[in-house]
Amino acid sequence: MKQLYKIFAITILNMVLAIFFVVDISAQSVYDVKQTTVSDMVFYVSNYGILGNNTATGKGGLIYPRGTENQYLYGTGTWFGTKKRVNDTLKNLVTLTYNHNTGSSWMNPGNIGDLIPMPSEMITKYNVERSTDFNLHGINKNSAMPPWSLWKTTESDATGTYEPTTTERNSTKYKNGLAVVSDEMFHTRYKDNDLSRYDGGSNARKSQGYPLGLQFDEKIYSWSKAPYNSSIIVQQTITNTSTDTLFDSYIGNIFDPDIGIIDKQGATNNDFVRTAKFGDNDGVYSWSGGNFGELGNNFGYMAIAHLETPAVNNDVIKSIKYSNQAAPLAEQIGTTSVRYFTNNDAFNLDNERYDFISSAKKDSAKLNAEIKVLIGTGPFTILPGQTARITYCITIVKPTSGKEATGNEEDLPAIKDAILSNKQNYLNNLLTSVEDNNVANNWTLSPNPITDQFNLQYTSEFGGEIKVSLFNLTGVKIADLQTGMANLGVNNFNFNISNLGLAAGVYSIRIDNSKSTISQMIVVAR
Questions:
Q1: What is the model's pTM?
Q2: Could you give the residue ranges of the DSSP H alpha helices within 344-454?
């Protein structure tokens, strides 16, 4: 009974804080929240660092499938922990875009250097940008916001470069066009320099060494069709705009799984979480205990893992170019910690938070409880002007048996395949350069999904040797499908893969020629 009262008290406290924060948002219209509209996953995006939470209602904000009340996540955000020299003493500091105790954020929309408070005429500039609200020329369909801010350049990958000047957001300046690389894409910018947002008060936080001077740029990708319509990919860049070198820095992505029917009493207190290896990085998968109305309501697993981590050279963040390009895997830090914690772990002090985020430990399992998860990377030193980039995926996976999600080992391969499929999608389709995109337009594959036969039409600008290969999601080659010479102009290659014994799932076709290597995801249907 005591534990029930404790849970009830925490719940009431969180509701009160959520209501307080909602009032704060409504009073300051600079804060904006939008949700996905084309994906089967309902996912909420704010312009101040909180994701996956419907801050207007204080409820969870990852619902799947759309149209149900099946909630998977209460909220997520980022902790940035570092050592900063304050009055000749290195101090442990941790900046939060999401405080798990209160559901609030220390962030403010906009760019560092903007006036605080933000002038009313600038507010719409930093509202959540949702690509489906803009036309093909980057103009907002309702004239409610400035033009789309991300544009392709030869120096960036396909996800684009941010243009701060609204009058220069056009194809006259950016010949390669808009950077919109998923069916629905979101973009926000926020920063940490408004100390009135911090817990503990402005004066106390300033004396401790805050703010760190961090500028966040966040891009979120969603899709309307299988196999990616049950997934979200979140890409963040974090720039040190200060004159301070930040030592022994860590990025922790914080998740609060709450799997259950929305508003169902007790449904958030029976989640199971386990750690798993997803290719090069560790992550987690979570499911519900099922004893609070989840059974029979088509719940699956929520899987989370990093797809990209910061690149370093001798522990220092690599060149600025990796703020808008993916670094080679060998230069990335990787996932260095997976930690679980509960409401009993308050982490109210800087040293507590830093010790937790910097612990190179990977918890194995925490079962049947109200669990929070940290997936972390580090350490690295970030010099003034440098940028760290990190990307993670959240995906919902149905049990292999078609029954309830119970943590059965037979479901793990499908969970891993879903994460690896998203990683291949991210690497092959989102991170291509402008030049790669031009090459990719020279070939088409149909049908897709395929059963046993498909056609590859390849238009070669120079002829020469060509090699077509089939890979699984872990990068292992299954077969060489074509090796030989391509003619100048249009080439048609027909393939029959019935003899390969492929299971239903996602694979990758790779085409190599003397100029480039490009890949495309394919789905094998059975």
A1: 0.81
A2: 350-358, 412-425, 434-440
